[in-house]
Amino acid sequence: MDAAALSSLRWLGRREASRLGWRGIAGVALIVFAAGFALSTLMPAQRRIEALRADVADLRSRLKSGGESANVPPPRTTQLENFYAFFPPVDSLPDWVGRVHTAAARNELVLESGDYVLERRKGARLVEYQITLPVRGSYSQIRGFVAEVLDKVPAAALDDIVVKRENIGARAPEARIRFVVYLGGGDRP
Fold first, then answer.
1. What residues does 129 pair with on adjacent strands?
2. Poorest-confidence range of 37-41, 166-170, 173-177?
3. How far is the C-alpha of 66 from the C-alpha of 58, rounded, in Å?
């Protein structure tokens, strides 16, 4: 575009702007904004709605072609297998113990010793790993530790907790906490 055409375009723009006034310019700006909004937001949302409608239609047709069997719950063996599939394998045990120790460190508890027992019962499909930990700290630290372990180790259960204070002058109570981590990999029935 040459300089004369650009100058002519500027002159034409100024003339139309002065003819429209500030209300007209605001109206044109709103129209441009609405068009940009429609193109950037509403059009992709409309395409997503159409895709979801197609998915619903596909699912409905599959449901109708499945007949009455679509309403039948899965067999008990499948439900039982899904239940046992939830539990982590035995070889992931070091990761779970590490999470227990990390939870203790985050709650400012020092784990100086502990008893760790892996128990495999004949005929059981789950393996139990018992973790018994003596800890010393405030009630809130102990409570936070237990809550974090139960949150971060989904296959863990709190089996026992004993909290005692030797005397009134003791600074922090002592606790003995036993978790059981259930793991897959036991005997198959």
1. 118, 181
2. 166-170
3. 12
